[in-house]
């Protein structure tokens, strides 16, 4: 029961504790009993790189920390304050909600590698949209994996959303077409389309996604209205290459990052933002149905720096 009463800030800062602890502990060690010099800045930069903030952003943060502070004592809190400010500057332009447009059904194609938390994210999004009063249909179009189909059905029940599914091996595009027709017939507001995530077979994946898009556009020339890429924070730098690959394959319009509670490398989200400037819509910090929320740059930046209070 106590867990249910936690605010989103408490869940977020708790979920990012592994990342913030790794950064904070190292910074505290470096700043105690030493004045700021170039060697300390290099060490701080290395700490940030280990947290997967990326080379360019880590260098920028280290430079900001050093500004006007050489040969002076500096506290861990000061360093964390600059870190939070610099990360927030990078994240503010990309922190954008995924707005449900006027199209009905508003169709969100959800892509990502198998194991990224894609299907779970779809379930959580369905629950969120249902709570906002939207009628939701989910297409279990990852027909390659029986487990994915079963998982969608379970989440659909939990979220009180209609699920359109077939047997494993069914044609994914035909299923997406049927789900679109179902959503339109039921007067649904949102259609969430799960997809396969076999990135190792890029040609086959590209063909399948293109076919799904092609058949949906027979019913609505503008579909899908959003392409959401789900990334697993625990894979670190691999998430960067996934952004590049899926953007080429599927024309990604925004990101959701999951499993931030399972890694000390949560800085990867900031590194992706710095490099790709792609909208970040949602982040997830746990398995619970409420552990996915719209992305807020200030809260994330403070949590990653280990600043204990939300402002």
Please give a structural write-up.
This protein has 311 residues and is α/β, with parallel strands linked by helices. It has 2 domains: 3-94, Four Helix Bundle (Hemerythrin (Met), subunit A), CATH 1.20.120.140; 106-296, P-loop containing nucleotide triphosphate hydrolases (Rossmann fold), CATH 3.40.50. It contains 12 helices and 8 strands. It has an 8-stranded mixed β-sheet, sandwiched between helices. Strand 2, helix 7 and strand 3 (162-164) form a beta-alpha-beta unit. Helix 4 (55-66) crosses helix 5 and helix 6 runs parallel beside helix 7 (146-159). The longest helix is centred in the C-terminal third of the chain and has 18 residues, at 202-219. The radius of gyration is 21 Å and the shape is elongated. 51% of the residues are buried. The mean pLDDT is 90.
Query: Shape from CA axes?
Result: elongated
CATH class of the largest domain: Alpha Beta
- Beta fraction of the residues? 5-15%
Give the strand tally.
8
Give the name of the CATH architecture of the largest domain: 3-Layer(aba) Sandwich
Indicate the CATH topology of the largest domain: Rossmann fold
Residue stretches low in confidence (pLDDT < 50, at least 5 long) are none
- Could you tell me the radius of gyration in angstroms? 21 Å
List the helices and strands and how they pair.
Elements: H1 8-15, H2 17-31, H3 38-50, H4 55-66, H5 76-91, E1 106-111, H6 118-131, E2 136-140, H7 146-159, E3 162-164, H8 172-186, E4 190-194, H9 202-219, E5 226-232, H10 238-250, E6 254-258, H11 268-276, E7 280-284, E8 292-294, H12 297-305
């Amino acid at each position: 029961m106590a867990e249910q009463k936690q605010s989103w800030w408490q869940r977020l800062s708790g979920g990012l504790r592994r990342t913030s602890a790794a950064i904070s502990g190292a910074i505290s060690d470096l700043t105690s009993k030493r004045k700021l010099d170039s060697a300390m800045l290099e060490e701080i930069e290395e700490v940030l790189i280990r947290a997967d903030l990326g080379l360019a952003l880590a260098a920028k943060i280290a430079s900001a920390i050093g500004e006007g502070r050489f040969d002076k004592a500096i506290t861990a809190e000061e360093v964390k304050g600059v870190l939070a400010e610099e990360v927030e500057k990078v994240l503010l332009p990309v922190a954008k909600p995924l707005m449900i447009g006027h199209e009905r059904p508003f169709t969100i194609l959800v892509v990502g590698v198998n194991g990224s938390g894609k299907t779970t994210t779809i379930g959580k999004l369905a629950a969120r949209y249902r709570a906002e009063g939207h009628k939701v249909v989910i297409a279990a179009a990852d027909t390659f994996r029986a487990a994915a189909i079963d998982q969608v059905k379970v989440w659909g029940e939990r979220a009180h959303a209609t699920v359109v599914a077939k047997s494993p091996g069914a044609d994914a595009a035909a299923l997406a077409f049927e789900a679109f027709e179902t959503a339109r017939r039921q007067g649904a507001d949102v259609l969430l389309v799960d997809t396969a995530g076999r990135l190792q077979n890029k040609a086959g994946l590209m063909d399948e996604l293109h076919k799904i898009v092609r058949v949906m556009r027979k019913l609505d020339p503008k579909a899908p209205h959003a392409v959401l890429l789900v990334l697993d924070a625990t894979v670190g730098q691999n998430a960067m290459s996934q952004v590049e690959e899926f953007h080429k394959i599927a024309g990604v319009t925004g990101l959701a990052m999951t499993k931030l509670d399972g890694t000390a490398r949560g800085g990867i989200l900031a590194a992706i933002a710095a490099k790709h400037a792609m909208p970040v819509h949602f982040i997830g910090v746990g398995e619970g149905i409420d552990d996915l929320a719209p992305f807020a740059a200030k809260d994330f930046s403070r949590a990653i720096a280990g600043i204990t209070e939300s402002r």
